[in-house]
């Protein structure tokens, strides 16, 4: 028996279980009422607990919880308590009022208990909070049947805007008078759809816009265009609210020209708003940096986009913020909300006495090992003068690989920065274009257990960090667990995937490359690579497998004619399929940047500029 492979499979299954339990720089790039067909929907356990609390001095306010819409027909039976507790105090309050969502309607009565999390579900970006990108319960698609003869495009589910967020999937959900596999799709027109994942039928659709609002304009910035609504991949928790909840962050513009960022929780079966939401996102943090007033940096919703995907960890939703085309002033924000109440629990600014340090990662989500949070931020102020603990003296962490503690509130627990970080940041060759991947634990050649994470950015070097001692900063050399230079052919705009002791990177202008992990070290050169290169912005791969067998690496290729590719995970040189092999039969129009394919239950879903392309066995 291959115990290394078995341990990694068990690690992935543990992550899926944990997610069900907790449920948890610069980027390069009209409201309507909701409708739903309601049927019998079971009641759920309602969660309690406040999650992580705010740090001293961080803003805890944000939040008028008012909503103009209401849902009907939802049953609120069920008792119980949920997870996530926290303690701590915080000074300062943030202002803000929440405007309403469109009203949701849905009939039906119900009772009983909420269905348990299904092993076929995809409830968060890249499959789990470690962001491994591996879907290990795929029993239909195999290297033997994924080919142009047996596999291809099954349909196209049109929606009202660009799908920049990864679609999410729930298997066997009681909804709309029956049981459906449900695809949740968020759009840049500020809409959320629940679609039958097998037919494309709309089960419900809601707008997150308040009365008289439109999606935000693009600020004359082509990165997210022509409108900005919901950009970040949402997150789902089956255990919260009467029937489970999907959490989304949406941007809008009101009739007076004001901009809004709000966090919403929507009922999985009706789309109705939950927990008194939405909550207006507002925050402040001690500092004298960009957009500071009287010693506090203030969050301006006009200046920011929520590009990185939402993280749900131990009952708390974590959001991270980037700029529009580097328009000043901006800084790096992480803002957290209780999944039970939508009340703000904690705020952290990464450049409170400087600027920059945005969090965007080409749409990837902040990663977690179940306790701490890991990510890379973009170019911005860094204090090369360190205090006694090795931290930047003024608290500015631009262009870093970061580890955050979450209790009693958000704080930087550790970091790694390259020796030439100041020069690279000034040249816009920062880490923040790439996402972090938390690896399973490995034992090195000396028998020492290593807890690692990996990421890369615009300088094309791969950095493997020790999560227990990340390396901090030294102007003379890099103190990092492992550095693999010169093997990625371009900058990384996206994130890698992990499967069976392999890490798969897809940088700009380069093939997707597989690096093997052995003895807790990444191979210094790829062990296989795809026969084709990927142009801008590269590729963020995903993996489907049945446990440790039948591994397939999937990737979306951007372009005027986009393409879905599939490769043998054990040997990337073996391309199994691409959507251009059968002429126009499987083509699905122009590409959409930063898209990662989502695989679930025998189908592959790819977000586009106006819908979702669906692939499977023909």
Automatic annotation (TrEMBL):
It comes from Caballeronia glathei. InterPro entries: PQQ_b-propeller_rpt, Quinoprotein_ADH-like_sf, WD40/YVTN_repeat-like_dom_sf. The keyword Acetylation does not apply. Residues 1-28 form the signal peptide. This is Pyrrolo-quinoline quinone. Keywords: Signal. The keyword Lipid biosynthesis does not apply. Residues 23-112 are annotated as: Disordered. Residues 58-112 have a biased composition (Gly residues). Residues 25-57 have a biased composition (Low complexity).
């Amino acid at each position: 028996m291959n115990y290394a492979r078995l341990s990694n499979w068990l690690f992935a299954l543990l992550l899926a279980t944990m997610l069900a339990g907790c449920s948890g720089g610069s980027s390069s790039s009209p409201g309507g009422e909701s409708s739903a067909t309601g049927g019998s929907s079971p009641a759920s356990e309602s969660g309690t607990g406040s999650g992580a609390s705010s740090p001293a001095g961080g803003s805890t306010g944000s939040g008028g919880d008012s909503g103009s819409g209401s849902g009907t027909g939802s049953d609120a039976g069920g008792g119980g308590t949920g997870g996530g507790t926290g303690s701590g105090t915080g000074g300062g309050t943030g202002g803000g009022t929440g405007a309403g969502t469109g009203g949701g309607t849905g009939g039906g009565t119900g009772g009983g208990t909420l269905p348990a999390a299904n092993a076929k579900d995809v409830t968060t970006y890249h499959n789990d909070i470690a962001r491994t990108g591996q879907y290990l319960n795929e029993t239909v698609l195999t290297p033997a049947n994924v080919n142009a003869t047996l596999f291809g495009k099954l349909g196209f589910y049109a929606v009202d805007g660009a799908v920049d967020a990864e679609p999410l999937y729930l298997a066997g959900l009681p909804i709309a008078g029956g049981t459906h596999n449900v695809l949740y799709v968020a759009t840049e027109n500020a809409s959320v759809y629940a679609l039958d994942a097998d037919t494309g039928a709309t089960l419900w659709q809601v707008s997150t816009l308040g009365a008289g609002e439109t999606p935000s304009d693009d600020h004359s910035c082509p990165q997210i265009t022509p409108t900005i609504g919901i950009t970040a991949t949402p997150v789902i928790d089956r255990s919260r609210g009467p029937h489970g909840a999907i959490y989304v962050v949406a941007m809008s513009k009101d009739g007076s020209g004001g901009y809004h960022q709000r966090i919403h929780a929507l009922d999985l079966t009706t789309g109705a708003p939950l927990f008194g939401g939405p909550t207006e996102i507002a925050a402040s943090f001690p500092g004298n940096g960009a957009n500071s007033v009287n010693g506090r940096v203030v969050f301006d919703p006009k200046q920011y986009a929520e590009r990185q995907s939402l993280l749900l960890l131990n009952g708390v939703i974590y959001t991270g913020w980037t700029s529009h085309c580097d328009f000043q002033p901006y800084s790096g924000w992480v803002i957290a909300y209780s999944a039970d109440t939508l009340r703000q629990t904690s705020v952290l600014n990464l450049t409170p006495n400087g600027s920059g340090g945005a969090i965007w990662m080409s749409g990837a989500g902040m990663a977690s090992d179940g306790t701490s949070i890991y990510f890379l931020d973009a170019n911005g102020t860094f204090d090369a003068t360190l205090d006694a603990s090795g931290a930047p003296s003024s608290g500015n962490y631009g262009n870093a690989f970061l580890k955050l503690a979450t209790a009693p509130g958000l704080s930087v627990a550790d970091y790694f920065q390259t020796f030439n970080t100041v020069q690279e940041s000034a040249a816009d060759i920062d880490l923040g274009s790439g996402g972090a991947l938390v690896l399973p634990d490995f034992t090195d050649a000396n028998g020492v257990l290593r807890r690692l994470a990996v990421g890369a950015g615009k300088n094309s070097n791969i950095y493997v960090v020790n999560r227990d001692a990340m390396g901090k900063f030294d102007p003379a050399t890099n103190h990092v667990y492992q550095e693999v230079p010169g093997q990625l052919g371009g900058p990384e705009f996206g994130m890698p995937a992990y499967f069976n002791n392999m890490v798969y990177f897809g940088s700009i202008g380069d093939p997707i490359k597989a690096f093997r992990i052995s003895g807790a070290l990444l191979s210094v050169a790829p062990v296989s690579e795809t026969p084709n290169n990927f142009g801008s912005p590269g590729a963020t791969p995903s993996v489907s497998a049945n446990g440790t067998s039948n591994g397939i690496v999937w990737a979306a290729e951007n372009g005027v004619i986009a393409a879905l590719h599939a490769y043998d995970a054990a040997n990337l040189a073996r391309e199994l399929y691409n959507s251009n092999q059968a002429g126009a039969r499987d083509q699905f129009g122009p590409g959409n940047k930063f898209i990662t394919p989502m695989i679930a239950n025998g189908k592959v879903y790819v977000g586009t500029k106006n819908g979702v392309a669906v692939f499977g066995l023909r």
